[in-house]
Amino acid sequence: METLLQDLRYSLRALIKNPAFSAVAIVTLAIGIGANTALFSLMDAVLLRKLPVRDPQQLVCITDPESSGMSIGTSDGERGLITYHEYEGLRDQNQVFSSLLAFQSNSSEAPVMLGNATEGSKATINMVSGNFFQLLGVTPVQGHAFGAEVDQGLLAHPVALVSYAFWQRRMQHDPAVTGQKIRIRQTVFDVIGVIPASFSGLMVGESTDIWVPLTMQQAVDPGQDWLTQPKGSVTKIMFLHAVGRLKPGITIAQANTSINLTFKQVIEAEAASIPKEEDRKAITKSILVARSASRGLSTIRGEYQRNLGILMGLVGLLLLLTCANVANLILARSAGRQREMAVRLALGAGRRRLVRQLLTESILLAAFGALVGLLLAHWGDRLLLRMASSGNDPIPLDVKINLMVLGFTMGVTLLTGVLFGLAPAMRATRLDLNYILRGAARNIFGSTRGAGRIPLGKLLVGIQVSISLLLLIVAGLFVRSIQNLSAIPLGYNAQGMILFRMAPGLSGYKGAAMQHLFDQLNSKFKSVSGVTAATLSSNGLFAGTESGDQISFPGYTVKPGLQLSARFDQIGPNYFATIGIPILMGRDVTPEDSTGTKHCWINQTMSKYFFGDESPMGRQIKDEYPETQRVCEIVGVVADAKYNSLRGNTPKRFYFPFFNPIDDSNFAVYFVRYSGEASAVTSGLRRAVRDIDPALDAPEFFTIPEQIDRRLRGDRMTAKLAGFFGSLALFLACIGLYGILSYTVARRTGEIGVRMALGAQRGNVLRMVLREALVVTLLGTLVGLGAALAATRVLTSMLYGLTPRDPATLVAAALVLLAVATLAALIPAWRASRTDPMTALRYE
Q1: How far apart are alpha carbons 75 and 263 in whole angstroms?
Q2: What is the dihedral of CA 528, 529, 534, 540, to 10 degrees?
Q3: Closest CA to 127 of 225, 202, 215, 245
């Protein structure tokens, strides 16, 4: 320990004596360590961090942890979500969980009013089973949690728990919060407690403001009963996640087997009352898959997991590059310390002792770089969160530097110190004592006994060039991929159009009254100043909702082996003209389609799939869903269009008139074409809604480009960060090349002077130095291209419209690197060519 402290004191004095060297090395290391720490913080928040609950390792999710929203109908195969009735059966009959909770997979947004206020702002509300907080071991910081008693009786327990953030933001941290009243839509709830700040729910990347019992569903989302499942119905409302706590000694595999036996009993009991055998079979084909829930559930985890893994690889390469850069700095510095090392060796110091001293200096340097890197990471975390999000609202992730992140940073720091310090330390202690002590090392680069051209330094520069090229190629591939995605034709004009969703069922509208209101709204919107056209549909575009059914073609025999299913939407009058989807055959939707014979439209893909070159006009389509069987006549074929995804082939799709539908819609997405200022149009649309019924929720507007940007946020984050890391790597490689050439020129002043005294021209010297730089750069480029061809294969599934071996990207990256490296070499080459022979010879 005494020797270690002595080494640390000596190392600190050595760094203080060389402030320029220390500052450059620390900043360089801070960039590499800071980038790794910041990205690891984001990865920790999304993928690694365990839930802040009691014994999270005991939690098991039996639904798909990446599912969200609601699915209505039937489902076979692995079940993403379950119904409330299925949850009750599993909760009461399971043999492997000490308790099983359920919660709403996609939180609701509703206006919340405090006290006697008549207007409120929206809050995020999650509906949970009564045992939710007890099972998780989450204890309120104020008041108490509700229990299993709230599972008895629909709408019988209007109680709520608020998040710590909601308590601070909306309730001004009022210590008398328990017992206060809040109104969610038309129902008054009693606040009974405040949840700790550390807990925001089981869904990572989502934040809940208020928790209420599941039995209060119709108060939060009125208009449809999600909890009651009528006997004999095949329509399931699947909207719940289920998480259990394992009993002692039970494994996840055992839980999976047992819970599926119980689930089979539950769904077979439901199916017994269904009249048709084929419908009964469809109901009983579902299975559950048990997975660990210790790190929570997340819809963004699958979206970001692969991207974050690739980015961690990139910042790891960036760290290697910074190590090579700092190693070059230490090599240059160690050449000036050769006499010191020789004297210490001559006085009896062992080589191992000197290596340990030099490694101590390197690790201390890395530690200072890590401290600055942590500051950069703290700032970079917020930047990363913005880049990972879409729009101005960041994903609600708790990205912070915790103990795990600190441990990662300490490990990176130690590894970094050894990586960039070991080779220079070994090199610096391998000396010819007689030669050094005679003073011959004064111009070691020009002597025949010296290290010549520092092959290790050139090797490190070559490594930097290779890493930089690899990072540039990866960045180029991601940037080109996102450009290709952004340039995909949508099949309609997305500009000059506003979209918004209306859900009158939440305000008490039902059946014919709701359909009449939708028609009123559609007509009213057309009269708003600046609006040129308006229409509506059930699902919208890039709104995240889809519908699909099994179908048949009465009177027409399709080819064997074709899949008799298609997606569908229900659309308003002039839909195709308003959106801008070309009509290939037939006509657009008209108001007359709202009554009489049911008509439908199909897209080009569906027409070719089922009818080939035949005309589908006049053919009939039958929707085969048991509770909504309808037959319609095809009166139009329209061009393919992108609905919810830019990737992949266009799916088969057919369309029904919104006001003569296959199934009644409880909500609609409106499309408004406009001219002029968007803000004036949105203000007019809000007034139109208030004029018809002030009780309706105020619309929230979005555009298709905004929705697409949300779909591509993972790709954009990867492209931006890869581009940033590639640019940073290029800069560091050029700095390394510049530094080694500058040092080489300075040490070879005598040699260059002799050359010029013997007749060498300035151009000869300039070419000599540039040639050395370009040889190193070219060799590094060749190695980098080989590494890129091997390593970028893992990116194949992440790219769109190009391959990892895209020639344009490879050539462009190599040319950029060569051009910038040449510019970096010009300054030291120019200085070498301006050497005064007399000055150099006097120095020699």
Answers
A1: 14
A2: -90
A3: 215
pLDDT tens digits, one per residue of 275-289: 877 777 777 888 999
3-state helix, strand, coil in the chain (%, to 5): 50, 15, 35
- Residue 446 pLDDT greater than 60, yes or no: no
Half-sphere exposure of residue 96: CA atoms within 13 angstroms, side-chain side: 24
Rounded Cα–Cα distance for residues 573 and 592 (Å): 9
pTM, full prediction:
0.84
Closest to 308 in 3D by CA, of 203, 207, 205: 205
**How many C-beta atoms lie closer than 10 Å to residue 501's C-beta?**
17
Q: Where are the beta strands (DSSP E) in 141-253?
A: 142-143, 159-162, 181-184, 187-194, 210-213, 236-238, 240-246
Cα-Cα end-to-end distance for the chain? 45
* Contact (Cβ atoms closer than 8 angstroms) between residue 657 and residue 570: yes
The owner of tokens 């009213």 is: 524
Cβ contact 788:465 at 8 Å:
no
What letter would DSSP give residue 82? B
Q: Do 297 and 61 form a contact (C-beta atoms < 8 A)?
A: yes
d(CA 514, CA 770): 78
Quick one: tokens of 190?
């009693």
Q: Residue 312: which residues within 8 A CB-CB, separation 6 or more?
A: 36, 39, 40, 43
Q: Which of 736, 831, 737 is nearest to 775 (CA)?
A: 737
Q: Which helix or strand (DSSP H or E) is residue 471 part of?
A: helix 455-486
The rounded distance, in Å, linking the Cα atoms of 254 and 264 is 16
pLDDT tens-digit series, residues 6-59? 778 877 887 888 887 788 888 888 888 988 998 899 889 888 899 999 999 999
Query: What angle separates helix 762-791 from helix 713-747, to the nearest 10 degrees?
Result: 150
Burial class (CB in 10 A: 0-12, 13-18, 19+), 674: buried
The rounded mean pLDDT for the chain is 86
CA atoms within 13 A on the CB side of 623: 26
Token couple for 413? 């720091």
- With a CB cutoff of 8 Å and minimum separation 6, the contacts of 7 are 356, 357, 360
Higher pLDDT, 489 or 734: 489
Structure tokens at 731: 């800069």
> Of 50, 38, 130, which Cα lies nearest the Cα of 87?
130
Residues 6 or more apart in contact with residue 582 via CB below 8 angstroms: 491, 576, 638, 639
C-alpha–C-alpha distance, residues 519 and 517, integer Å: 5
The structure tokens listed for 752 are 């260059």
Q: Is 318 helix (H, G, I), strand (E, B) or coil?
A: helix
